Amino acid sequence: YIKMTVSTPLERKIEDMTIDTILSLGISRALKGYLYLAESIVMCVVKPDKLYCLSKDVYPEIAQKYGVDMSCVERSIRHAITKAYSEDPTPMRSMFRRPIQRPKCQELIAECADTIRRVFY
Predict the structure, then answer these.
(1) Residue 112 belongs to domain with CATH number
(2) 22 with 38: CB under 8 angstroms?
(3) In sequence order, what are the residues at sequence separation of 6 or more whose Cβ sits closer than 8 angstroms to the Cβ of residue 55?
């Protein structure tokens, strides 16, 4: 599990679905970007307004939690997305239900968060 402070059964279910979603996209658990992406998605599911200020709210919070620079968080997420997309773009293309080049960090976080939010809210 990701190193989150999960306080309710609903938050645990959101975390589980987030992990399943990320893995289904081909993103490896071995990458730091996997962890940072999971944290970002869960934050945006629970508080959708955070999606509009990733670089001001989400990335700094994750950076502080893991003792890294904010730019490292975004770069690690971007690397994880790029690696998974270059190995097999089909899962990401299927998620977006339209032809897409490698999604940007915000695009993937938003799509995952929206998909998960529709299940729980």
Answers:
(1) 1.10.10.10
(2) yes
(3) 70, 74
User: Which residues lie closer than 8 Å to 89 by C-beta, 6 or more apart?
Assistant: 102
Specify if 91 maps to a domain: yes
| Gap between the terminal Cα atoms of the chain | 22
List pLDDT tens digits, range 31-82.
999 999 999 999 999 999 999 999 999 999 999 999 999 999 999 999 999 9
Cα distance between residue 9 and residue 30, in whole Å: 26
pTM, entire model: 0.93
The amino acid at 73: V
Chain center to CA of 17: 11
Domain that holds residue 116: 9-120
Element (H, E) at 26: none
Name residue, tokens 């999604």. 103
